[in-house]
Design brief:
By secondary structure, the chain is mainly beta. The protein has two helices and six strands, in the order ββαβαβββ. It has a six-stranded antiparallel β-barrel with strand order 1-2-3-6-5-4. A hairpin with a 5-residue loop joins β5 and β6. The protein starts with a strand and ends in a 7-residue tail after the last strand.
């Protein structure tokens, strides 16, 4: 049941006159999600790839697509006072479901 409100954060970058990227702003979109913990097999597979999965958000595919900023996928999820970096976005079982696989992100701190 998708009854948790999460915030998808997209970092919008621009380039300075020397061509280097710099953060210009962030865009936030809220959508409802179902919170799911990563299974044992998923955790081990991710660890082999050097990623430590913290949480998985299951969302409606159409809601996720509507939250995209100019077609750019979000970079961060904020939920329950925590910040998570998005590692992977994948469709599961049917077109209607999308899973956002995340790891806890200490770079940006808590919300």
């Amino acid at each position: 049941m998708r009854n948790e409100l999460i915030t998808l954060v997209t970092i919008i970058e621009s380039h300075n006159n020397r061509g280097f990227g710099q953060i210009e702003s962030t865009a936030r979109r809220e959508i409802f999600a179902e919170i799911r913990s990563a299974g044992v097999i998923e955790k081990y597979e991710a660890q082999r790839a050097g990623i430590d999965i913290s949480i998985i958000f299951k969302v409606d595919t159409d809601s996720y697509k509507a939250a995209l900023i100019d077609g750019k996928c979000p970079d961060i999820v904020e939920y329950d006072g925590m910040t998570y970096r998005i590692c992977d976005v994948r469709r599961k079982k049917s077109y209607a479901n999308t899973e956002i696989v995340c790891k806890e992100d200490n770079i940006y701190g808590t919300v």
